[in-house]
Amino acid sequence: MLPKNRPPYGQNQRRTLRQLFGLVKRNPFTISRWVLCWAVVGTVCGLFAGLYWSVLELMFHELEKFQGWSLLLVMPLAGLAIGLVIHFLGNPGEIAAIVDNIHLRNGRLDARKNPSMILASLLSISAGGSAGPEAPLVQVTGSFGTWVAERLRLEGEDVRSMSLAAMAAGFTALFGAPLGGAMFALEILHHQHIVEYYEALMPAIVSSCASYLVFAAITRLGIAPTWHFPQYHIDSIDDFALAIVFGIVGVIAGWMFMGIFRACDRIFAQIPGPVYFRTTLAGLGLGCLAAVLPLTRYFGHHELEVVLNQSFPAVFLFVLVLAKMTSISVTVTGGWRGGFIIPLFFTGACLGKAVAGLIPGLNSTLAMICTMAAINAAVTRTPISTTLLLSKLTNFSPFTPILFASLIGFFLAPKVPLIESQLKNQSSEVQVPVN
């Protein structure tokens, strides 16, 4: 028997539908206006992403001229410059801070952090830090979404949805996958609840599509696959079992990466003094790694193609995996700015190719992509969007093996995620004013 004060099941749903139909009947252009608003937000975010990428490429071409042991001078100087930017313009935070803002500040991202984030990330990425542009793009575009919501005087979930739509546009601009970028913006927020802010899904998709078109028109990126893996076709059901095995390998690597990351975090936390001490020392460490193993430099966008097209001994690839994990950890915990999604893909690809090289008969394409999926899903807790992103980035048409590996990575990941703010959910949210 239903409680006395509780309406019968379905009554609230029918009332909501009647209100929605009534709204559309009174003003049939209401939904169209919202779609236009989301598209405009995505267009502006795509323009910014295109400009950011163009500036990044210019800086990259200047700084990539420095190679070998000259990096022992160049990268510490870059670290000093990054630290000075953060010291004088403020700490822009990382992806964990963005997740906190979505949970605890009703989705409001502070645009005052953008100058520090833009300058510090451009220096970090172009100088050779093992961090990609996804974090700065998401911070800046997400804060633009908050600004639009405030100009439109939106409240509550509408503010969060607009911020998430703009964040999705930032993800999509880099990855060139509108659906994957939209899902990633929602999925990375949570450890257990895959898509808690479901109402933001359609705004995120519309904004992502607009951003993708604009960014692709400016940079010519994202139209074709980013990485050109050898073609692969499923031969038997055994391939799904292999995908699970490679997923387990990726999970083990994810556990190792999180251990290295937390160890580096503890070391850098003990360094006294201003932040530029820490960033300079991080630059020295990164310079040493890059001088010995040049493939550890940068975030892996172009370096992964080198791994694909050249033949390396399995032992070298295993060493490169450990060095890259260390490089990512030093970059992020040392105060350099950027994200670790594409660097994790690079790490997984190296590991998968090494495993395939040790065992005759294994398909290296299947091994690399499944390991890439598992390690990223284990660290970021994003199995669905990881599958969508890798399918687009690699042009890997058999969708299911990537999904199997991603789910293995998600379910076998450590209980405490690397981004600890993912543990928060709506039931624990409080409203905190933006500083």
TrEMBL record:
Its main location: membrane. It is a multi-pass membrane protein. Keywords: Membrane, Transmembrane, Transmembrane helix. GO terms for cellular component: membrane. CDD domains: Voltage_gated_ClC. GO terms for molecular function: chloride transmembrane transporter activity. The keyword Protein biosynthesis does not apply. The keyword ATP-binding does not apply. Pfam families: Voltage_CLC (PF00654). The chain crosses the membrane at residues 31-56, 68-89, 164-189, 201-220, 240-263, 275-295, 315-333, 340-359, 396-413. InterPro entries: Cl-channel_core (IPR014743), ClC (IPR001807), ClC-type_chloride_channel (IPR050368). It is found in: Membrane. This is Chloride channel protein. The lineage of its organism: Bacteria, Bacillati, Cyanobacteriota, Cyanophyceae, Nostocales.
